[in-house]
């Protein structure tokens, strides 16, 4: 083995009494918040980044402490380069090091391509791709004992649907950067992976399906083999898996958490009428 290569992951050379430090962007709400609370149950320190909702971020911190972990909130707008720097400066000042960086915060305008202006493109890049890349550069400097980086993607990265081109394009770029980072950071014992969510029950899902011109969500749910939206808990649990010891040999991958949405194609069972309705699950007695 190349002596420059460290054991994979934050647990490789870790002294057992060293508590893990995790940074999650956008942890005041949604998937980030649920992830923060899940990690808190395992002890260690969770850094809760947010932009607007100081009260919700503080609530997350309180619940982290109630769950047995330690935490603090950092207001930093990751859409700006200064915001990313301030965020990591604060982690460095208060924790001195880092084990997990989860690039989770996202925001976008949802528009048809003909209505997308240069400023929309610039903001989409600044908000959705740049913080992952600049954040990962900073994270590597703080991961003194190997580490894990996870970025959030969505099914708009691999499938086209109305008004999602800007965010979908940035998520596709994230999945590509995941592979490049995985190769470059492997010698430091840092694994880099993505989690690609389908239709996940959250505030942002509600917002998206209320965008003008969007079809009703019910029609989409009927086309998901699981016939339901995913939960923020299911997303958080997948991220926790990638941050954990069991994923030590997984790097450069994006796991899809979508109840089968991205693997189906027309003709859909939901459109086919009774002839193609699936029968009840067969059993040994039938
Ligand atoms: N929900 C879904 O259906 C779904 C599906 C697939 C993938 N995903 C991905 O999963 C991730 C989380 O999604 P979510 O639905 O849980 O998000 P969400 O509920 O909309 O929450 C977004 C979080 O990001 C923070 N945030 C927004 N702009 C920020 C900025 N400029 N700087 C720092 N923080 C900022 C928000 O904090 P404040 O409100 O305090 O500013 C909030 O904590 C995203 O990457 C999303 O694309 C979501």
From TrEMBL:
The keyword Ribonucleoprotein does not apply. The lineage of its organism: Bacteria, Bacillati, Actinomycetota, Actinomycetes, Kitasatosporales. Belongs to the short-chain dehydrogenases/reductases (SDR) family. Keywords: Oxidoreductase. This is Enoyl-[acyl-carrier-protein] reductase FabL. Gene3D superfamilies: NAD(P)-binding Rossmann-like Domain (3.40.50.720). InterPro entries: NAD(P)-bd_dom_sf, SDR_fam. It holds the Pfam family adh_short_C2. Coiled coil: none annotated. CDD domains: ChcA_like_SDR_c (cd05359).
């Amino acid at each position: 083995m190349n002596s420059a290569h460290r054991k994979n992951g934050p647990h490789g050379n870790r002294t057992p009494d060293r508590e893990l430090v995790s940074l999650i962007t956008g942890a005041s709400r949604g998937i980030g918040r649920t992830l923060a609370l899940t990690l808190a149950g395992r002890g260690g320190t969770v850094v809760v980044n947010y932009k607007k909702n100081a009260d919700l971020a503080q609530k997350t911190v309180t619940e982290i402490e109630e769950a047995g972990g330690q935490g603090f909130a950092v207001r930093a707008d990751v859409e700006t380069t200064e915001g990313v720097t301030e965020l990591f400066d604060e982690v460095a000042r208060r924790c001195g090091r880092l084990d997990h960086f989860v690039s989770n915060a996202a925001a976008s305008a949802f528009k048809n391509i003909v209505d997308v202006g240069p400023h929309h493109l610039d903001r989409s890049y600044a908000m959705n791709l740049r913080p992952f890349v600049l954040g990962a550069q900073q994270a590597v400097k703080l991961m003194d004992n190997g580490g894990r980086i996870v970025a959030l993607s969505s099914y708009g990265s691999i499938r086209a649907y109305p008004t999602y081109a800007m965010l979908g394009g940035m998520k596709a770029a994230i999945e590509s950067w995941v592979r490049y980072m995985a190769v470059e950071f492997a010698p430091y014992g840092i694994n880099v992976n993505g989690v690609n969510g389908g239709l996940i029950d959250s505030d942002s899902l509600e917002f998206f399906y209320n965008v003008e011109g969007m079809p009703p969500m019910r029609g989409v749910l009927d086309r998901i083999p699981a016939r339901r939206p995913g939960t923020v808990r299911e997303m958080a649990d997948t991220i926790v898996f990638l941050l954990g010891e069991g994923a030590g040999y997984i790097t450069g991958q994006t796991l899809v958490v979508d109840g089968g949405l991205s693997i189906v194609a027309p003709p859909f069972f939901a459109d086919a009428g009774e002839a193609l309705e699936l029968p009840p699950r067969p059993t040994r007695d039938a």
